[in-house]
Amino acid sequence: MTTLVVDAVSVAYGKDEPVLRDVSIQVEPGRILAVTGPSGAGKTTLLSAMAGLLRPRAGSVTVDGVALRDRDHAVAQRVVLVPQDNGLAAILTAAENVQVALIAQGAGPAEARRRMVEAMDRLGLAAQSDQLVEELSGGQQQRTAIARGLALAGAVLLADEVTSELDATNRQKVLDVLRDEAARGAAVVFATHDPEAAAACDAELHLVDGRAELIRGYSDLPVPA
Ligand SMILES: Nc1ncnc2c1ncn2[C@@H]1O[C@H](COP(=O)(O)OP(=O)(O)OP(=O)(O)O)[C@@H](O)[C@H]1O
């Protein structure tokens, strides 16, 4: 089980003023942390720092006590990011997008195909597998990106606004997938604008102007019977 710790992190773009200031949070395995806040508050910036894409100007992001150096290092630590813009290759099929990611992670072709089929099926996308991404709707693309993240079976799953284009049924499907990922032991972080989706998570970190407040902590959870 893997724990990701953000310790007193400040992040800036170039020489600009920091857009995240002194943010600390522990992301627990088996739990879902919601990251909320208004547009521009710094949610994507925080997930990018957790994913090793942005290096903090101050503080550290550690995975099981090891400070992340860059994205390659984070991938080696099995930190999976489902980005806000889905990050899919438009000229590949949905299935190819998932399989390419699995093969890059070291899976053989047969295993990559098996895990792709499983993940696409879980997201209700079996019929869309062989369609080019550019032919899919926004919501289908978003679910394909989640299927890819799910298939990668990370120790940490960072999901950035992954329900923004989904109807109620598919939003619930994605929340169920995030819950299942936590149940198998992943530490899950879910950035969202949606108060109902945030309420379904185990804890909530609220960002305003780059400052963070833990408005609901893991310790507030009811003790299991
Ligand atoms: N590449 C960049 N270069 C410079 N500034 C950036 C860059 N990306 C984001 N910012 C700035 O950082 C701040 C936080 O942006 P971020 O995308 O993290 O917010 P967010 O909470 O994810 O917003 P949204 O809900 O709209 O996706 C904003 O002021 C934004 O303008």
Automatic annotation (TrEMBL):
Q: Which GO terms describe its molecular function?
A: ATP binding
InterPro entries, per database record: AAA+_ATPase, ABC_transporter-like_ATP-bd, ABC_transpr_LolD-like, P-loop_NTPase
Query: Which key words tag this protein in UniProt?
Result: ATP-binding, Nucleotide-binding
- ABC transporter domain boundaries: 4-225
Q: Per its UniProt record, what SUPFAM superfamilies does this chain match?
A: P-loop containing nucleoside triphosphate hydrolases
Please give the start and end residues of each transmembrane region. none
PANTHER family cross-referenced by the UniProt entry = IMPORT ATP-BINDING PROTEIN (PTHR24220), LIPOPROTEIN-RELEASING SYSTEM ATP-BINDING PROTEIN LOLD (PTHR24220:SF689)
Family indicated by similarity: Belongs to the ABC transporter superfamily.
Name under which the protein is recorded: ABC transporter ATP-binding protein
